[in-house]
Design goal:
By secondary structure, the protein is α/β, with parallel strands linked by helices. 45% of the residues lie in helices and 16% in strands. Helix 6 packs antiparallel against helix 8, helix 6 packs across helix 12 and helix 12 crosses helix 13.
């Protein structure tokens, strides 16, 4: 079985390292020949949750170098969301006729890739692995997460079972019959945990300790949940049930809500947001596929999304260099939305 991983950022790097350390050979595709040369020299290393692992990076090339190569049985697309469609356009000719293309980006990118390529070989995926790229080839896994995979149309299939068996020795794989519902549930957490942590420059545990951080988390989640429910999809349990206890269009304070929130904190509370890493390294963010997607869909549904709109605008301002992350941004978003 030939496996290609496209994109060696935090998530792709952790997966590639753990697969090779488990004895599963993989080919790697990076942006440039220079990156390939440097990665071959330094190799791959992961520390943190799951234990330390290292591997050589012998089979690494720029993506275009694989043109004409023997077809791959599985291609894992691990680029940033905004790069996924451009990278995906080069992948069908690299894939075996009975192979599978597995995008694992945030939001509904797998469905976008499938629609863009009009290719039935696309399988959906998402990640609950918290990871940081410390430097080229060096990664830190921040939680004991997993990859969730499923058919875009829902239900069970032999190919998702085969993918789980193929990747399972390296990373935990779970298969779902309701991928769209799982994507929604993960997106709710991305909107209210990842993005807010990036804007504040804090972990979830830290920003929730601030009154404005707690209020903003609740309002962001409630607003995004209203949009998700209006989509008609059945939401799937991820870290917690997607519906807070007693939810009636708004979260209800009390012991049950605190227990629900504690479940999220136990998983995401101390993880550095990947979007904050984008800010620090001057890279574009995935905001259009996270809170921006909620804003766009809410507009089509006729639902107001002032909080997610203000969040999206703040992220764009930080990306343009017109603002910097910090706790004061949280109160500013509340003011802008009101």
């Amino acid at each position: 079985m030939r496996i290609l991983i496209v994109g060696l950022g935090a998530l792709g790097g952790v997966i590639a390292t753990r697969l090779q350390a488990a004895g599963i050979p993989v080919h790697l595709a990076v942006r440039s020949a220079d990156s390939a040369v440097r990665l071959k020299a330094v190799g791959l290393m992961v520390t943190g949750a799951g234990g330390e692992a290292s591997a050589a990076a012998a089979a690494v090339e720029p993506l275009e170098a694989y043109a004409g190569a023997e077809p791959f049985n599985l291609i894992v697309l691990a680029t940033k969301a905004q790069d996924a469609l451009a990278a995906a356009s080069a992948l069908p000719i690299l894939l075996a006729s009975d192979g599978a293309l597995l995008p694992i980006q945030n939001g509904f990118v797998p469905q976008m890739v499938s629609d863009f390529l009009a290719d039935s070989r696309v399988v959906g995926g998402l990640s609950n692995l918290g990871a940081t790229m410390k430097s080229l080839g060096v990664y830190e896994q921040r939680n004991a997460g997993h990859l969730l995979i499923g058919e875009l149309a829902g239900g069970e299939s032999e190919r998702t079972a085969r993918i789980a068996e193929l990747l399972g020795p390296g990373v935990e794989i779970r298969v779902t019959r309701n991928l769209r519902g799982a994507v929604w549930s993960k997106l709710l957490l991305n909107c209210s945990v990842t993005t807010l942590g990036a804007i504040a420059g804090l972990t979830m545990r830290q920003f929730l300790a601030l009154p404005e951080g707690r209020e903003l988390f609740i309002r962001t989640y409630d607003e995004a949940l209203s949009v998700a429910l209006a989509s008609g999809d059945r939401l799937e349990r991820m870290v917690v049930e997607p519906m807070p206890p007693g939810w009636n269009g708004r979260s209800i304070p009390g012991p049950a809500f605190e227990a629900w929130l504690g479940g999220i904190l136990g998983f995401y509370g101390d993880i550095k947001a990947s979007m904050l890493q984008d800010f620090e390294q001057g890279r574009p963010t995935e905001i259009d596929f996270i809170n921006g997607h909620i804003v766009d869909l809410g507009h089509r549904q006729g639902l107001p999304t002032p909080i997610n709109s203000a969040i999206t605008g703040t992220v764009r301002a930080i990306t343009r260099g017109e603002a910097v992350p910090g706790p004061a941004r949280l109160a500013g978003i509340l003011g802008d939305a009101d």
